[in-house]
Design goal:
Stress response protein YhbO; alpha/beta; 186 residues; Class_I_gatase-like; three-stranded mixed β-sheet; DJ-1/PfpI
Length: 186
């Protein structure tokens, strides 16, 4: 199990602030433990600020690269952490939206947790998908054309040529990380 993602490259994208700490760090650590090479790209590159519960400033994390410098063809999957500020900032980032659309066009897996699916709305890629998210994002997803919303710890939906994996909150991270690993491993 610990080597099931050997040779796989996974990209995690964030803004530079407002990131829910565990939704960045736990997938980063878990996917590396599964054997993947994981790259963290942030909007501006450099230092990113994490939070706990969207309100308590926590540790800073150095990203590996600036978001605009990454190319989707270098990666097998994309992960979008939550945090309301993070997701709201990413959904306005042209490089993030382009990258998401490039992953979709290539039929690659995208995983988003908590408020992360907000970014998918602005990328215009959730039509026809059944997914989950933080409960307050539900109506936004439905209004943007999602096929359905479920209250589940993890939801994988393969439709329109690509797979979307979503989860609700940091409590769902073990199932979220496992679903990503299983899907990317094939």
């Amino acid at each position: 199990m610990r080597s099931q993602l050997n040779g796989k490259h996974i990209l995690i994208i964030t803004s530079n602030t407002g990131i829910e700490r565990d939704e960045l760090l736990k997938p980063l650590q878990a996917l590396r433990a599964y054997g993947a090479t994981v790259t963290h790209a942030s909007s501006k590159g450099g230092t990113t600020q994490t939070f706990v519960g969207d309100t308590e400033k926590d540790q800073t994390v150095e990203s590996d690269v600036q978001l605009s410098a990454v190319v989707s063809s270098d990666f097998d999957a994309l992960v979008i952490p939550g945090g309301t500020v993070n997701a709201d900032t990413l959904r306005q980032d042209a490089a993030a939206l382009k990258l998401i659309n490039d992953f979709v066009k290539a039929g690659k897996t995208i995983a988003a947790i908590c408020h992360g699916p907000w970014t998918l709305i602005d990328a215009g890629v959730i039509k026809g998908k059944t997914l989950t998210s933080y409960k307050s994002v539900r109506i936004d997803l439905e209004n943007a054309g999602a096929a359905g919303w479920v209250d589940a710890e993890v939801k994988a939906c393969t439709a329109n040529g690509w797979t979307l994996i979503t989860s609700r909150t940091p409590d769902d991270l073990p199932a979220f990380n496992e679903a990503i690993a299983k899907t990317v491993a094939g």
